[in-house]
Amino acid sequence: QVQLVESGGGLVQAGGSLRLSCAASGRAFSRYSLGWFRQAPGKERAFVAAVHWSTSNTYYANSVKGRFTISRDNAKNTVYLQMNSLSPEDTAVYYCAADGPRQGFGSTCYSPANYDYWGQGTQVTVSS
What we know:
Blueprint: E1 2-7, E2 10-13, E3 18-26, E4 33-39, E5 46-51, E6 58-60, E7 68-73, E8 78-83, E9 92-99, H1 105-108, E10 117-118, E11 122-127
Parallel strand pairs: 2-11
Antiparallel strand pairs: 1-3, 3-8, 4-5, 4-9, 5-6, 7-8, 9-10, 9-11
């Protein structure tokens, strides 16, 4: 069992930056691959970024490549999402999620259905 708690959301002007954190509690955090998703009003939950539990390979949605960076600190049981050059289109509730070890994570990481645990979300609002 893993519990996830996001923080770091808020209101920022376009072009600004935010860093989201997701603190995990529970067993064997280092063996979970982690992802960030976001959901805007009236839209489905969408993949943002993910990091593999052992290789630390990272994966990004095309819309955030070059602007967002996912990282993890296993010693602190925390995963981060550094978001730069934010635009109003990035406004959404951001969720972190954990996926137990699985083969083919590079293919499965994009679907929220493949994650076992979710945080409660943190609101990010980007003003124009």
